[in-house]
Amino acid sequence: MTTTLSQRLSAELAGLRDSGLLIRPRVLEAPQRARTHVGGVDVINLASNNYLGFADHPALKEKAAAYLREWGAGAGAVRTIAGTLRIHEDFEEQLAAFKHTGSALVLQSGFTTNQGVLGTLLQPGDLVVSDELNHASIIDGLRLTKATKKIFKHADPADLGRVLSENETDGLKLVVTDGVFSMDGDIAPLDRLVEVARKYGAVTYVDDAHGSGVLGEAGRGTVHHFGLQDSEDVIQVGTLSKAWGVVGGYAAGHADLRELLINRARPYLFSTGHPPAVVGALSAALDLVQQEPEFMERLWANTRFFKAELARLGFDTMGSETPITPVLFGETGAAFEASQRLLHQGVFAVGLGFPTVPRGLARIRNIVTAEHTRDDLDQALAAYERVGREMGVIGG
């Protein structure tokens, strides 16, 4: 008998419920800030990617409103037909100058950027070597290509060299890595990875979603952090939705990269351009991070304080090097229970378990921001201490 739609939906949802993996997103009832409202309660927000506090910043809202009034509510078409406004290209020039690259192109999201760029660059006969912990958008983007796909051990230049040495090709060789890994908060050893890639004639592709606005001079990202910003054999992609507080994705690199993507990247070719208000807010974000270094200074001061205090209390933060600060609870049920207990104490921090992270490594992922005050962090740490002692994660 043919499966009905109702049967399929019911069976899939039942499977998720039975395995404890059914997601029911929390709904924020106030703007995305260091403090927000969830379930009618004022909470300290440790769950967002709003690193610099830009999502509700007056400068972004003001420029978004100005672009809305001048340019309208929408782009009205895909970029290649009639949807490229002057402000789109102005922002892309601003972004390329910020990244110190020959060109930049903005796409609809970080996820679609990986699909579009990887799908454009890689052809049959090419070799792509990907870090085993790369983001899902990279994995899905690679699935759409017909290149030969290989994996190297996480952040391991020696293993990258082994894989490249064992897989010769006359086609393009591409090494793909996150700049900052979103679950563990560690930084890719990009200087050593690029050195190995160059030894074997490979191009390095860096997804800097969690590095842009966080690392490098004025938040220029992981590539700049390692002094590789002038390298034509390094491609940078990322999001405009985390530190920049808005939405979108970008690709920045070789001067010809932009033109090829305009002609071949399917998400770009078949999606409407960003609304003017989005472009205005993004432009304001890039201006703000360069004009006011205090945002990054506060972000890192808060990060150092929060990590040090968690360690003092006895929590395992899994070697994180960035504002992404996981707290290890082990089993999925324990991480989810801790998240619920923290929420009852006024701290919004989300538990992550298998299959998002490996079995036995369930954690709560915290992200402090430039907007958090010391009082916010003290209250959050006090809540963590109470919950950790109640659950036996730290000593009593």
Describe this structure in words.
The chain is α/β, with parallel strands linked by helices. The protein folds into 2 domains: 27-56 and 293-390, Alpha-Beta Complex (Aspartate Aminotransferase, domain 1); 58-291, Aspartate Aminotransferase, domain 2. The chain contains 15 helices and 13 strands. The longest helix has 20 residues, at 294-313. The radius of gyration is 22 Å and the shape is globular. It starts with a helix and ends in a 6-residue tail after the last helix. The model has no long low-confidence stretch (mean pLDDT 96).
Summarize the structure.
By secondary structure, the chain is α/β, with parallel strands linked by helices. The protein has helices at residues 5-18, 58-71, 79-83, 86-99, 110-121, 136-143, 157-166, 190-199, 222-225, 257-264, 266-269, 276-291, 294-313, 332-344, 374-390, and strands spanning 35-38, 41-45, 103-107, 127-131, 148-152, 173-178, 203-207, 234-239, 249-253, 324-330, 347-348, 350-352, 362-367. This is 2-amino-3-ketobutyrate coenzyme A ligase.
